[in-house]
Amino acid sequence: MMSTLFSPYTVKNCMLKNRIVMSPMCMYSVENEDGKVTNWHPLHYGSRAVGGAGLIIVESTAVHPQGRISVKDLGIWSDDHLEGLKKIVDTVHKYDAKIGIQLGHAGRKAVIDGPILAPSPIAYQDDMKQPEEMSKEDIRKTIADFKEGARRAKEAEFDVIELHGAHGYLINEFLSPLSNKRADEYGGSRENRYRFLKEIVEAVNSVWDGPLFVRLSVAEYHPDGNKIDDFIYFSQQMKAQGVDLVDCSSGAIVPAKINVYPGYQVPLAEEIKKNVDIDTGAVGQITEPVHAEEIVSNGRADLVFLARELLRDPYWPLKAAAQLGVSIKGPVQYERGWQEILPK
Ligand SMILES: Cc1cc2nc3c(=O)[nH]c(=O)nc-3n(C[C@H](O)[C@H](O)[C@H](O)COP(=O)(O)O)c2cc1C
């Protein structure tokens, strides 16, 4: 059978062998609050490479200690992080997958000691810390942190960088009128709310010429939040800046009740792709191979991101190939097991 899911995807200098992406997932496996890779990380990411995913995106990795979601987050704020990150990259490359890293800053959602930062001094919810309003100097420094993170990602030989602009973390906090109440050029109009991300993309572009993805929360589930035309605008701007793909997630900028069902965020990826000439990734409760195939074959998105399903089954790509009747090449060590269920 012809399968789009198992067809290659080329972005800039990088070719993915299929459209299956391991979505970034925090592993909370840093041991000494130092942001450093532990034994868990190469094992965890390496086994999804063995399992057949085309691209694996390493969990949200903090560009500054203050931007950690928790003290167990990976970090990329120091050259001391390079050795461990390189270990993940080499392991995944050895087993024939491409590897990306999600660069993040938690903003007002950081759960750490000491002050935390946000565009405006509004806590995410009552039981969370009130952030400090970022000064222009804080903004400038944080943009430089993203740039340094990208420079290190390149040095560690990652294939893809994804900026974490979703789920109510710092970049998302600037984009959303729900969390950004600034009166300067970084707040107010959507042009202004985009400025922080714009300057981060510019800074990253100055040190990185590989594939650049941005994850956005393309629905805010609040009447005063950004609407789809705002996300179309942000995506048009990103496209003009050379961003390659918008990874379309949703929610978590403010607490909200979300009606979740298989593929619930796929229409968001479809809407962005239709209205902006930019590639998209679909994510969220995609677990069935035929569902993943449908999404990419019907052009709803270019890549399918799987998160929890790949925690349950690292060999999901093998299962998908068998179900879709596609022949794939597994690791030589496992050939005798795999060939029995794959078409000849
Ligand atoms: C344990 C766990 C950690 C996660 N960490 C991140 C993260 O670091 N960055 C991110 O953008 N999304 C993160 N997510 C969200 C997933 O990438 C994904 O968008 C979400 O789980 C929906 O996909 P799924 O239904 O396939 O799990 C995380 C999800 C889980 C379950």
UniProtKB/TrEMBL annotation:
It comes from Domibacillus mangrovi. Keywords: Flavoprotein, FMN, NADP, Oxidoreductase. GO terms for molecular function: FMN binding; NADP binding; NADPH dehydrogenase activity. InterPro entries: Aldolase_TIM, OxRdtase_FMN_N, YqjM-like. The keyword Oxidoreductase applies. This is NADPH dehydrogenase NamA. Residues 5-324 form the NADH:flavin oxidoreductase/NADH oxidase N-terminal domain. Its cofactor is FMN. Coiled coil: none annotated.
